[in-house]
Amino acid sequence: MSALLEVSGLQVAFGELRAVRGVSLTVGKGQTLAVVGESGSGKSITSLAVMGLLPAQARVVEGEISLDGVNLLDLAPEELRRLRGEELAMIFQDPLSALNPSLTVGYQIAEVFRRRRGASRAVATGRAVEAMAEVGIPDAAERAKAYPHEFSGGMRQRVMIAMALALEPRLLIADEPTTALDVTVQAQILRLLRERQRAGLAMIIISHDLGVVARTAQSVVVMYAGQAVESGTVAEVYGTPAHPYTLGLMAASPSARTGRRGIRPIDGNPPDLTALPSGCAFHPRCPFARERCRTETPALRPLPSGRTSACHFAEEVLAHDRAAGA
Amino acid sequence: MIGYLVRRLAQAVLLLFGAVTIVFLVLRVIPGDPAALILGSQATAQELAAKRDEMGLSDPLLAQYARHLGEIVRLDFGDSWRLGGDAFAAVLDRLPATITLAGFALLFTLALGFPLGVYAARHKGKLADRAVSYFSLTGQALPAFWVGIMLVLIFSRTLNILPATADGSALALVLPAFTLALPFLGWLARLVRNGTLEELGRDYVRTARSKGLSERVVFNIHVLRNTLTPVITVLGLILGNFIADAVIIEQVFAWPGIGSLMIESIQNRDYAVAEAAIILIAVFYIGLNLVVDLLYFALDPRVTLETV
After folding, report:
1. What is the similarity comment for this entry (chain A) (predicted)?
2. Which residue, among A162, A213, A239, A219, has the nearest Cα to A25 in the 3D structure?
3. N or C terminus: fewer CB in 10 A for chain A?
4. Is residue A107 part of a domain?
């Protein structure tokens, strides 16, 4: 299986502040990768860097983002722009603010066909209505004339998905696509995304909801303080976390087995990126921490069965998992 | 919608009623006797009293007021003793000159203020942005009559390229219209600049870019569309202010509009004309505000009756 997207050693800085400090990830063709982590861990910045949509103050300091072997960071802005919508697309957490309030949703979808494919207004409008019907918006021809504020949250996210997938891109980045939605609507949106996956769409799903990840992704990257600290298949990482932070994330999420009473939050707060702890950034909150963690920064290293962990004591964490499971 | 319209219309009528009352009181409080002005200094006390009776000025104030309200509803402001003939007709006669002046001032404001604001936003923090900002503040801070006189000194007296007063040519419009526009032009530029910057930072701009739209389309369609709404709604207010501010500008440039007519009428205690002029200005101001409110519905789909 060859990779569709390969990010390696990505570093993004806002002035002096490093928001992303060396992230590598791979998305196979038609595969879905989840990126999980707390707010401020650099998940969204990483995905915006892939799209070439970083805010003006941010810039990529190091690393490579290659799509089908082409380094996107080497492309001229105009070349990268043409890839957006066509190869790469993105949907966002809050579909209300992500849609233009003064244009009808039909216009906003149709303009993709008009501006990118040179379709006439009538043809583009027809295709926009089809796209809306395809994502399950009832009465699409009529609803195309409505404005974003006239839709419910779930319908708005469907509009976003229809718009993002209009030109049949190969990779969709979904940044917290269900966070702002009701639980029942969440399930509908996830079902919609899974249909697209089956049709061959590759995805990066960014979420702090481990349940959403479990239902959509094959593999997962766990981020902490701007770095990837663990990666592997969802089954492996969920079953036997190889990094204490992942272990903490699992304990902090409700599961069917333990219910909400079983939730144990991770002690302490996410680190201040302007004053990172020495050594491993997680050591002040880590129950496994030793002297070595304070002095030596752990590298992301491969473990057996193709997974990785950035913990000096990954083997010990795995042993702990097995003991707890037994 | 209908209910809202009715409510706004009722408010407008109430405002007009207030304006009429204030104008009536103020004009009666100003010292000076119209009868004396009309008859001249040779008139006897009897003649003056007879004239005042004839003009209804010796009736109790309340009676005058009641009669007056009835007249205004019929648009009958009485005759101008100075110009002869209907006062309202005299004002309407001068109205085109003021409308032309205000219209051109609006054109200046839009044609210069909008691009300046967009330009400043696109060069945020750079020299161009600061230059626009200084220009804007200066334009708002300088008194209009002074700017008018300076422009006349420079462009008419010294350079001799533009007429200082109304001489029938279109060029005569340039100086008064620019003087009228200057403070609002700067104000609009800042409004557009800040609005554009605010819109540029919104999420939908990122979405538009994520669709692979060109920067030109992102800016001209997505951003400007949202910047335009507040601009169009203030245009009505600006126009209303132009018609009111024209009083000063017309005086400076001897422009034959309702502003200069109003000042002449007040100086001559020609109550009928002064009042007709002031009421007409008030009608414009209130009417334009009403139009602005209604425009809001047409332009911003989010504004619904629940939000007003």
Report:
1. Belongs to the ABC transporter superfamily.
2. A219
3. C
4. yes
